[in-house]
Design goal:
single chain; about 180 residues
Length: about 180
Amino acid sequence: MSDELEDSLVAKNEEEIEEKKLVEAQSTAQDLVDVAPADALAWFVKGKTLYLEGNFEEALSCLAQAASLDKQQPAIWHLMGLTLLPLNRVGEALDALQYASAALPNNSDIKVALGVACLLSGKLEEARVNFDQAYKADPQKTSVVANELYDTYISRSNAVEGSTKALLERMLETRKVAAINGYEV
């Protein structure tokens, strides 16, 4: 596959995702896989699109294919961890996110996802450390990502205990108030 064709399909997929045209984005992602089935990026793009659609099982399958083609790409492991969370495969999500975090230790998106996985695993101190690192790296973005993860997976999950939900809600609210008032927590 030519780099130019691959780049144009990736750009088209990203544009469709931004415009919330997920059906078209999925078609473009499939075109990318059809043209470049041995390219990890193609499978990553398809997995990401399926993830955004909420089709976590198929997304995981595509991300596993991407990882088999490029085992060292942290973005694959980050998205794989995020995909495993709503499937209640928290131990595997924790492993994937720990790998991604080791590769990109200052990435606030990965740190907040790892914090959620640690929290769901009952590793409260590790969760706090990861949330603190994420907020220090990028407080505004971390707040958005943490709230999104909470709203998307945790608040709706029957598998998450009420006390864990309450703990994360308190942490998010404390961070929000701290940001509004201009002080660190």
